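Incident log, support desk, overnight shift.

02:14 A customer reports that sequence design results differ from what the structure should imply. Their input is reproduced verbatim below. On-call engineer (initials T.W.) acknowledged and began investigating.
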């Protein structure tokens, strides 16, 4: 009976470990969901920046067209307007350059996040598989103990 009591305690301990492992699995799934949401938010920001970049490119094209029309109207007005347009063009190109840089950074960030997510996901899968293997081993051991006790008694 002392052995039975000890084995019962071991079984209870294994059941507690199983519950802990299940809770950890739930936590891991929540972490994965949060990361997926984060990736989704990054993708939305990337799309927004892409639209902004397209808008800036259109603005740049419109500014260039305006500058060309002004140059054609009169030579004197063209010189002053050309300077203003070139200044605006420079600002827009700077903005476009910054936006492209930021877009590239967001892409790299997204790719890095994706790699980290995939790595973490693989790690979680491996850990889950290991946990399931351990659970199976424990269940087999408990089954062995039950059959052994059934055979003894």
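02:41 Re-run completed on a clean worker. Output:
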């Amino acid at each position: 009976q002392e052995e039975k009591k000890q084995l019962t305690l071991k079984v209870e301990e294994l059941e507690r470990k199983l519950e802990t492992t299940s809770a950890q699995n739930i936590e891991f799934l929540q972490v994965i969901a949060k990361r997926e949401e984060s990736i989704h938010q990054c993708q939305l920001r990337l799309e927004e920046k892409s639209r902004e970049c397209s808008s800036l490119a259109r603005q740049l094209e419109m500014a260039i067209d305006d500058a060309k029309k002004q140059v054609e109207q009169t030579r004197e007005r063209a010189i002053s307007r050309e300077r203003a347009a070139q200044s605006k063009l420079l600002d827009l190109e700077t903005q476009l350059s910054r936006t492209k840089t930021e877009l590239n950074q967001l892409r790299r960030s997204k790719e890095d996040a994706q790699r980290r997510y995939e790595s973490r996901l693989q790690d979680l899968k491996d850990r889950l598989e290991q946990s399931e293997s351990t659970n199976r081993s424990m269940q087999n051991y408990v089954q062995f103990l039950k059959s052994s006790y059934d055979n003894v008694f």
